[in-house]
Amino acid sequence: MKTCFYRAEHVSALERKKRIWTAVFALVCAVTAGFCVFFILRRTTLNAGRMELYATAALTAGGWVAIAIRTCALNYLRALCEHEERILSSGEEAREVRGLVTLDKKAVHIFRSIDVRGVRVKTEDGALRLLVNAAHARELERAAAQGELTLRSVEGYVTEVER
Amino acid sequence: MRVLKTIFSKFYLYVLWAFFAFLICGQIFSRLGDAPAAHKVTLYADVPSMRDAALAAELERELPEGIRVVKVHPFSYAMIDDGDLLASDLYIIPESHVEQYSDSLRPIGGAALPEEGGCFREGELWGVRVWDAAKRQGIAADFIDYPDEDCWLFFNKASRHIRTLSGTGDDAAVEIARRLLAMTGGT
User: Fold this and answer.
1) What are phi and psi of A103, to 5 degrees?
2) Which residues fall within 8 angstroms of residue A79, CB to CB, at 6 or more apart?
3) What is the ipTM of this complex?
4) Which ranges constitute the DSSP H helices of B61-171?
5) pTM for the structure as a whole
6) Closest Cβ opposite residue B17 in set A40, A64, A134
7) Model confidence over B123-173: pLDDT tens digits?
8) Is the Cβ of A110 closer than 8 Å to some Cβ of chain B?
């Protein structure tokens, strides 16, 4: 059984997700701005302190949500799309190796890119180090538990798994 | 898990944003509630406490022409920087502190304000009594927590809103003073 980790349809799905999160981000910014404007317009001499508090709270909370969406979703989706497009459009010939596969326990974040886990393939000729997208690590681990695997890799990243 | 890790790794962004939001809103609301001196009448009161926002809102019900805002503050508001205090148009000062601020004040004889119980210097009316400590009666007592001594309303000699007295500017401070004096309050 063959599992392919990099597919053009997946990139399309990621792009769609990115568009949705971008829309959510814009909505959060707009709602936050709207609330601030509302409190500013409702300001009178008597309630100025209270309106300022509400506006500050709204701006703070809205900003935090926007930052979370930007850093946790949008930036990561962009990095993931770029990574997958790079692997799919790479001209490099896929390298094939068969052996016993073990994965590093912890994922590592590549700066301005994706989370990856180290993969060690023990072959007859020795050991080989590869990387796998952390999103696919669990699937690879499950497959590796069942014995030897054939891995295909491009630019050092595991792209296909075959039992 | 990744989300939590990302949030914690960017924790400084959240702190910076909260600071920025506080600063921005403070600036916006400060500017909204203020106006240039030419369009503003300011009253500072040397009293233990007061409902300054409520009193300002009351005085703003009918604004003199050209005036956008009436600012009311206790003296403690100008603790760090007394620039605003010295630029105020009107003062409410208790008897024991009048001498301390006398350099900023001026006679108000020409403004046709009540003279009974007033503060006189060299035969001229300088201040209108706003709080009679003996009778525990005065103006705007619902808004001002007066001390246990007589208090008077004075005009800043540098105010640009006392045309009746200075001959220049407008009479906005005099109008506001009259409105304030009309706000009688009990004990």
Assistant:
1) -115, 145
2) A112, A113, A114
3) 0.81
4) 83-86, 98-101, 163-166
5) 0.79
6) A64
7) 889 999 999 999 999 999 999 999 999 999 999 999 999 988 888 888 999
8) no
